[in-house]
Amino acid sequence: MQLRYSFRLTPTPGQRTALAQAFGCARVVYNDAITAREAARAEGRKAPSMAELSVTLITRAKRTPQRAWLGEVSAVVLQQSLRDVGAAYSAFFASLKGERKGPKIGPPAFKSRKDNRQSIRFTKNARWKITDKGRLALPGVGEVPVRWSRTLPSTPSSVTVIRDAAGRYFASFVIETGPTTDPRAAPDTEGLPAVGIDLGLKHFAVLSDGTKISSPKFLRRAEKQLKRAQRELSRKQKGSKNRAKARLKVARAHAKVADARREFQHQMSTRIVRENQAVAVEDLAVSGMARTRLAKSVHDAGWSAFVDMLRYKCERYGRAFVKIGRFEPTTRRCSVCGHVDGPKPLHVREWDCPACGTHLDRDVNAAVNVKNAAGRAVHACGAPGRPWPKVMAGCEEAGSQGIHAGARAA
Hints:
Layout: E1 2-9, H1 13-42, H2 50-59, H3 75-96, E2 118-123, E3 129-130, E4 136-138, E5 142-144, E6 146-147, E7 158-163, E8 169-176, E9 194-199, E10 203-207, E11 212-214, H4 218-221, H5 223-234, H6 241-275, E12 278-282, H7 286-289, H8 295-301, H9 303-317, E13 320-324, E14 350-352, E15 359-361, H10 362-381, H11 405-409
Parallel strand pairs: 9-12, 12-13
Antiparallel strand pairs: 1-6, 1-8, 2-7, 3-4, 4-5, 7-8, 9-10, 10-11, 14-15
Helix pairs in contact: 1-3, 2-3, 5-6, 6-9
């Protein structure tokens, strides 16, 4: 599998100027490619191929006075910009035909020099390298200092240089990794349990073993500072230098919140994956909940990003990852006897099962039911190599009697 490793860059003023020039050249080629394709469509002609666009917009354009400055940056950066246009149109047409999962997307739009995020990509053909001193040598830019926070498990295939809205520079490496390529990432799973996870707002996550992880609420904690910075920005005159400084201040405040949330999610997901041989979560309708009165809290929790981290880390560490359906009655079902009770409003945090009388914690009970439902799904489909304990069906299901085998252990 492929992963991205990002590291902070600290370019010198001269290197920032060179990067800004590369960002601008890549943006111009990107916009020229969209213009050429839209012109061909308007005239009823066949869309030009990538080879034709490369000759017209890069090779020949460099020889003209209007685009002579394209020759001052690496040609690989410009070629990758054309590839991005091709990928954007491919995704757009696949979305129109229904071949692409997710919501419908529109055609690629023009990029602006005022965009908060700028990026360029170098492949092996650009002959970039990591020097003996740990610096990133980029053609046309120089040796840029890198803040290495960890070692790379394998040789990168490409590097993307990014400048975010807060004015920070990052190097993003594409790495091939997995249980076979990185043995350190796949510790022995023998004796490790399976775990079900119930995500919520009162607690960020509740595990089937009873562990409750408190919700940090990074956005709520930083609201006062964010409001103050946003208020200062709204009072600055548009187009002024003071407004640009205020915008940067707001972007840095939001970046600080996002970084703290991402760090927390990485730590929690890594710990869960390392300590368990199988992980089960519920398929939550996050986009629907984000349109309710709890929208801010839902966005602040960042459930989707956390579940994505669990998924790819399970794949990398050789763990099993199961996502159960969102209509599974995990809250209303008793994890001991399997009885399904009536609806449970949010203020009901504990309840007694009317069938067996067991006192149940709402979140822990849901986490155990997530684990049990995942176990039934895995064994029902007969997937080989799934390290999941045998789980019996609930009492109300056909051909079942007694108590869930996995519920007592949890």
